[in-house]
């Protein structure tokens, strides 16, 4: 999926040279997936990406202990069942899984520190390149939405009833929170409860 989004962004920026086109839609060969690209938004985002990436490259990645401290013991009354924090290939990340008592619901939380060269690349690939793209098929959708006063990427997978929100926080973090059988409102509530301050 990542190479697809990168390719689509290049296409969108190229199309922005055509003044009479504000958006374009690409349909998969089997006709099951449609991807709509907001050309003007993609062009605008490309300039913002460059500026933001330069800012992120100058920052020092957080320690794994700092990231681990952002993983709460509980989310929506679900206890943390596992967690992992590591620093590799030039960027730091932490993730945790939360389950209710009968394991019928699950939340997965991932926090990426996008500082440094590698981190800036993660930020661009997993957040900015999706901002101007909407896709839809029989299993669900991906679209940009407003969340906490800023842009976020919302994804839904019908086959396992999973919602996912991807958004930026603290000017350097990329957050991905995924809820299986939790519903979208509860997932947003969990995301809003996170303490993502960088000391």
Structure, described:
With 199 residues, the chain is of the alpha+beta class. The chain contains five helices and eleven strands; from the N terminus they run αββααββββαβββββα. It has helices at residues 2-15, 39-57, 64-68, 116-126, 184-192; strands at 23-27, 34-38, 74-75, 78-88, 91-99, 106-113, 133-137, 140-147, 150-157, 162-169, 173-180. An eleven-stranded antiparallel β-sheet has the order 1-2-7-8-9-10-11-6-5-4-3, with helices on both faces. A hairpin with a 6-residue loop joins β5 (91-99) and β6. α1 (2-15) packs across α2 and α2 (39-57) packs antiparallel against α4. The protein is globular.
Structural class call reads alpha+beta
Helix tally? Answer: 5
Mean pLDDT across all amino acids? 80
Task: Calculate the terminal CA-CA distance, rounded to whole Å.
Answer: 34 Å
Radius of gyration: 17 Å
